[in-house]
Specification:
heterodimer, A: alpha/beta, 5-stranded mixed β-sheet, 3-stranded mixed β-sheet, B: 260 residues, alpha+beta, 6-stranded antiparallel β-sheet, two-stranded antiparallel ribbon, cytoplasm (chain A)
Chain lengths: 267, 260
């Protein structure tokens, strides 16, 4: 399936051009130039913004404090993949994505702390574990050794597609008589909701044996239809796409399908 | 694989220790609900919570059921004041600290989240001498995890002035008996996490091992033909680690003459 493998690569190498600007209220010794960066959609802000931190700390009097990001007044949750944050908050805006950098007044009622990359690793592995609990009752992840888990993390951290997928393919297997995973790991995000996301048990195959589609999932979660746009990795997959296929090919490295439901752009 | 076995064995050993000390609790647990051993579906969870809530109201233990706006989902909630030794006034003697920029006692007992390497930590031994105590506000939420088919405990803690406690501080107030268990458990069992219904940062106890240790307890109970309230039993095992005690009275059948 040459085409399907290409999809995996396209997903992995997706990038978002971003412009980082320092919060104008933060005191600097000299003018802070904006910093431009291509952010990997599948990674996490703390993993890919070391250069941003170095750049802005050069012009600030502050010691090494916890950096945090905000977009149009909304603190950005670093434990969400970068691409999810963009699709959710800025999908129909002009590129580059403009993010404001802060070093003061960490909003600890909104954001988790991230003192080091090991915290990101713990979150990432926790998601993978949860996804496998849904897909395989944790059998595959528990059969892996600690070094295999490390390989998944290092593959993500160092942007090594082959290293990551050598291990991740095991998490994408299922027995043919099952027809798919036990449940599909997914989260649906919507900014208009008070809830951070919707996550429920949902099978890829109906009791009658037919494949559930993306449309079926959305009908189940949003029975009252409205005009919205459904984004996964910045694209709108056809609602007829089988959920099992989406889970195998459009999941994030954490093995979850992160689906953003945003208001349809008014033309 | 060997490393995982060691972690698990330590974890189970401490859990079993706790089980023995809870033996009275188990033996006196009245029939509250039958649960299909080890697997807790959402309906079971709600039923167990309702029973727990009823008993809590009788005992004035402070639990309430919170509903999520616009859905039928909910969770148990309780706030409590907790008195802990003031880290500023209590003195400790322990192994020489690894990091030089953390002079106070509380953080020297904490796994260094900066390095995230648990095998370099001190052995957690400390002699705390008398000092004053400080009162903290804890807020506990019990949610259902459909991914793991278990309850999950989320909590947050504040000083009386309203300042949120950090992970390091929360960790420092975990009783030493539990610290070894939580520390060696994979995935840093106690960590910060986004509350799945409210979206705010909470601390939580990672649920991935819950089914395993609950299985131990529940099969033992089944052998004695004692139906158990899964949520109550689970709470009595994990709660005390984070300052949440479950009074024995929960398991005693209310007498007809008990006041409503």
């Amino acid at each position: 399936m040459a085409d399907d493998k290409d999809v995996l690569r396209d997903v992995w190498f997706g990038r978002i051009p971003t412009c980082f600007t320092l919060n104008p209220d933060e005191a600097t010794e000299r003018e802070a130039e904006p910093y431009y960066l291509l952010l990997p959609r599948v990674s996490y802000l703390p993993l890919v913004t070391d250069k941003v931190k170095k750049h802005f700390l050069k012009v600030m009097k502050a010691e090494d404090v916890e950096m945090w990001f905000e977009y149009e007044g909304t603190p950005l949750k670093w434990h969400y993949p970068v691409g999810v944050l963009f699709d959710l908050h800025a999908s129909n805006t002009v590129l580059p994505w403009s993010i404001t950098v802060h070093f003061k007044s960490f909003p600890d009622q909104d954001l988790l702390h991230c003192p080091s990359n090991s915290v990101v690793e713990a979150h990432f592995m926790s998601s993978i574990k949860e996804a496998d609990a849904l897909k395989h009752k944790s059998q595959v992840i528990n059969d892996m050794q600690k070094k295999d888990h490390k390989q998944l993390w290092m593959g993500l951290q160092n942007d090594k597609f082959d290293q990551f997928w050598a291990m991740n393919r095991k998490l994408m297997e299922y027995s043919t008589e099952e027809g798919g995973f036990r449940y599909i790991p997914f989260r649906i995000y919507q900014t208009s909701s008070d809830r951070p996301f919707i996550q429920k048990l949902f099978r890829p195959v109906s009791p009658e044996g037919s494949a559930h589609t993306l449309g079926d999932l959305l009908n189940e979660m949003y029975p009252d239809k409205k005009r919205y746009q459904v984004l996964i990795h910045g694209i709108e997959p056809l609602l007829e796409t089988p959920l099992q296929w989406l889970s195998e090919h459009l999941s994030h490295p954490d093995n979850f399908l992160h689906i953003c439901v945003v208001p349809a752009p008014t033309d | 694989m060997a490393l995982w076995i060691t972690y698990e064995m330590t974890f189970y050993y401490v859990i079993l220790l706790r089980l023995f000390t809870n033996a009275r609790l188990l033996l006196r647990c009245a029939a509250m609900t039958e649960t299909d051993c080890c697997v807790l579906d959402e309906e079971d969870f709600r039923r167990c919570c309702r029973l727990l809530l009823q008993r809590s109201e009788q005992l004035r233990d402070g639990w309430s059921w919170e509903v999520v706006q616009g859905s039928d989902e909910g969770y148990l909630r309780k706030t409590a004041l907790r008195s802990v030794p003031d880290p500023q006034t209590s003195t400790c003697s322990s192994r020489p600290k690894q990091s030089k920029e953390e002079p106070d006692c509380a953080s020297s007992l904490v796994p260094d989240s900066g390095r995230g390497e648990l095998d370099e930590e001190d052995d957690g031994s400390c002699i705390v001498s008398e000092g004053s105590s400080v009162v903290l506000q804890y807020e506990y939420h019990i949610l259902y995890s459909s991914s793991y088919s278990t309850p999950v405990l989320y909590f947050r803690a504040f000083t009386l002035e309203g300042r949120s406690l950090t992970l390091e501080e929360v960790w420092s107030f975990v009783h030493p008996n539990f610290r070894l268990c939580l520390q060696n458990s994979p995935l840093n069992a106690l960590s910060q996490q986004e509350h799945p219904l409210l979206g705010q940062p909470f601390f939580y106890l990672h649920p991935c091992r819950t089914e395993e240790f609950m299985k131990l307890v529940l099969t033992a109970a089944e052998d004695k033909h004692r139906p158990m309230n899964y949520v109550l039993l689970w709470l009595s095992l994990v709660g005390p680690a984070v300052g949440l005690d479950v009074p024995l009275e929960y398991c005693i059948e209310p007498q007809p003459s008990d006041p409503e």
